[in-house]
Each structure stands twice: as C-alpha cells, then as structure tokens.
Write a structure and sequence with these properties.
The chain is an alpha+beta fold. It has 2 domains: 17-171, Sandwich (Immunoglobulin-like), CATH 2.60.40.3650; 173-399, Neutral Protease, domain 2 (Orthogonal Bundle), CATH 1.10.390. It has helices spanning 2-13, 110-113, 197-214, 258-268, 277-295, 300-314, 328-347, 354-364, 370-381, 390-393, and strands spanning 15-25, 30-38, 45-49, 55-59, 64-67, 70-73, 79-87, 90-93, 96-101, 105-109, 116-120, 126-134, 140-142, 147-148, 151-154, 167-171, 173-180, 183-190, 221-227, 235-238, 241-245, 270-272, 366-368. A 7-stranded mixed β-sheet has the order 4-7-2-1-12-15-14. Strands 8-9-10-16-13 form a 5-stranded antiparallel β-sheet. A 5-stranded mixed β-sheet has the order 17-18-19-21-20, with helices on one face. Helix 3 (197-214) crosses helix 5 (277-295), helix 5 crosses helix 7 and helix 7 (328-347) packs parallel to helix 9 (370-381). The protein starts with a helix and ends in a 6-residue tail after the last helix.
C-alpha cells in the first residue's frame, strides 16, 4: 500500500516537458526554433553541438556560453526557453538543394534543424518531447512522428531530450497514405508539384512487402517526401524517411531504382568506417535490383543483363575500398555481394543467403566494417566467404 501511495508522486518528479517549436519564415528562408523546458525539475545543463553555418543566433534569459561549436545553456527554475535560427536553405551542389524554404513549401531534415544535444541532469530525470510548428496560413506539416494537428510526439527512450529526426515537409501539401504490410506509409509533396504520389504508393505496395521479408525490423512508419526543382535530382534517405526528386524515375534504364536504393538505407541504418562505404552503397544497390526481381518489377533476363552491366562497369574500379562509394566502385561492391550470396547459398545448401547477412547488419545498425561483414557472412555460410576476402576485393578484375 505504501508503494501505491508514493509511486505517482515519484513518477511525476522524474519527468519534465521538452517542447520544440519550429516557426517557418519563408521570406527569410529560415526556421526560428524554440526549445522550452518545463517541470518541477529541469536539467542543469544542455549542450548543443552545432553547425555554426546552419544553427546561429542562440538567445535565452538563462546563461549561454560558446566553446568552439558547442553552445552550452544552463536552464533554471520551472520553465526555461532558448531560441536559435536554423538556416534551412542549403545547397547540395551548384544550383541544387537538399534543404529548401520557398514561398509555398519547405523541405528539410529534423536532425539538421536540431543539432546533437547532450544533457546533464539527475539520472532519473527524463524528458517528454514534442515538436510543434508555427506555419503560414493554409500550410500543414508532415514528419515521421504520430501527429495531433501541428504537434508531433517524439519518442526515443535513449535520450534525455528526444531529438527530432528524419525528413519533414511543410506547406500546401498533397498526401497519400496506406498501411503496407504493417508499415504506416505516407507519401507527400507540395500541391501542384508534378510529384507522382499515387505512382510511388503503388510502387511501394508492390515492393515494400518483399523488402520487409529481408528486413523484418523495418520501421513501422515511413515518410516519402517528394518535390521538384530546384531540389537535388536524386534520392536521400533519413531515419524512417526519404526524399525523392519529383522527376526521378521509379525504375531507371539500368534496371535499378533510386527509391528502392534509399529504402534499403532506411531499412539497414548502417554507415561505413573510413574504407567501408562500399558496404553501405553496395547493399543498397544490390537490393534495388534484387527486390525488383522478386516483386516481378523486372524479369530474370533483364535482371541478369543488369548484373552483367554492373560487372563490366566494376572493372573500372581498382578496389572497393574508399571513403565514399559511387559509380564503378559501387558496381564492384554489387558484384562482390552477388558472389558472396552464391557462395553462402552453396555452402549452406540453400539454407542461408545474403539476406541473412543483410538482416544481421540491419539489426546491429550503426557503423559497419569489413570484419563485421565477414563475420556475418561466415555465420550464415558456416565457413569463410572467399568473395569477401580483402585481397579479392582489391585485386585486379578480369577483363
């Protein structure tokens, strides 16, 4: 009975509210961000690890100090606020943007808007985080999070203050949504844009179930954001979300799919060390082909033809190892992974495949290395997989 009387009071003392408010300002191409903390107890220190070119003009009634790129805020009392300006418009390459605010819409990443945060507080203290938008008239917003109007609940049990992440779109929007094999899927684009929302949703209906067969831990929510020029003419993944340019084909002439490529990035959530970006890009490109074959998007003959073209392109790459993988380097990575798949299937007498390796890496997430890939492949095959030996991955390719 004593426990029953004390628990509610103790539970209330362990929580504070953290509210991010994002005010989109089209005329300035920026977003004014406010973080408000409220509760009986607040953290004693909050550090923002900033990109000074994109997060600037921090202000608060509470003390703020800056050391290099780290802004340290010391909230106090039962309510404290800090504001800063996020430069949302960002050029990816000459004349092309991976984040943009226009008069009619804004597309950006939540984890670019809010920098990495480090919190100092009592160990038992935890924040309950929400994100709300202040928008121009007739605008709405979409994110990867459950929503109530323009407010979104953000839940990451590993953090004191949950950091908004993933692609976000605000403006006068057109949206299509559906539950696809348990995944709450939303496709959104600015109204009047030539983005093919219904085509994208249909494509996902055909292919996402096959992707989930490989990656059963695929996020329960998926947001696909699309927009046209002057956005970057490609695809870019983020947590539980991706961006796809409105004019990007769902299946390219070389039989690969930018949309599926980025979906594999979403599914796996891995990044390479200094030499292993080929693993990240290789898996994404390999499964952009393989999932199309499994779904019937391309036939066996076109699938084999695509792999032959990859093999020819791969001969231009002296090694898979590079800080950033692209072009012939990624083609060589696909060839290596295809060889590993055949080797695993043979060694296991068909009981395992590269799917088991991909699922294993996706379960671990985070940074991936050659050694991790080799270990996962060995576990699946029951023996070393020669296609993934370092010497073979950097040896000259037969002409």
């Amino acid at each position: 009975m004593l426990f029953g009387l004390c628990t509610p009071a103790l539970a209330a003392e362990r929580y504070f509210d953290a509210t991010f408010k994002a005010e989109i300002r089209p005329r300035r191409a920026t977003i004014l961000v406010e973080l408000k903390l409220s509760g009986d107890r607040l953290p004693s220190k909050v550090e923002f690890h900033t990109d000074p070119q994109r997060q600037r003009a921090f202000a608060s009634k509470n003390p703020i100090t800056r050391t290099g790129d780290v802004v340290t805020w010391s909230p106090s009392g039962q309510e404290a606020r800090i504001t800063y300006e996020f430069v949302a418009t960002h050029e990816h390459s000459a004349g092309r943007y991976d984040s943009l605010v226009t008069n009619d819409w804004a597309v950006f990443r939540g984890d670019k808007m809010v920098p990495r945060i480090t919190v100092t507080s009592q160990r038992s203290l935890k924040g309950r985080t929400t994100l709300t938008f202040a928008l121009p008239a007739e605008w709405s917003a979409v994110t990867v999070y459950p929503e109530a109007g323009t407010t979104f609940d953000i839940d990451d049990s590993d953090r004191k203050i949950d950091r908004p992440a993933g692609w976000m779109l605000a403006g006068k929007l057109g949206k299509r949504s559906e539950i696809i094999k348990g995944v709450q899927t939303l496709v959104a684009a600015p109204s009047g844009d030539n983005s093919r929302r219904q085509d994208i949703l249909a494509f996902l209906n055909w292919n996402l179930p096959h992707l989930k067969d490989v990656f059963p831990d695929f996020p329960q929510r998926l947001l696909v954001v699309s927009a046209g020029d002057p956005m970057w003419r490609g695809g870019l993944s983020g947590p539980s979300s991706l961006f796809l340019h409105a004019e990007r084909p769902l299946i390219s002439e070389n039989r690969t799919s930018t949309l599926l490529h980025e979906l594999v990035h979403v599914a796996m959530g891995i990044r390479g060390d200094e030499e292993s970006d080929w693993i990240v890009e290789g898996f994404a490109e390999y499964y952009s082909l393989e999932i199309l074959r499994r779904s019937g998007g391309i036939g066996k003959a076109r699938y084999e033809e695509a792999l032959e073209r990859m093999a020819a392109w791969a001969r231009e790459s002296p090694s898979v190892f590079a800080r950033k993988s692209a072009g012939a380097n990624t083609a060589r990575a696909v060839v290596a992974l295809r060889a590993a798949d055949l080797e695993i299937r043979k060694a296991s007498e068909g009981r395992a495949s590269l799917d088991d390796v991909a699922a294993s890496l996706a379960k671990q997430r985070g940074e991936v290395t050659l050694e991790m890939l080799q270990a996962a492949a060995k576990k699946a095959a029951g023996t070393d997989v020669k296609a993934l030996h370092r010497a073979r991955l950097s040896a000259a390719q037969p002409s």
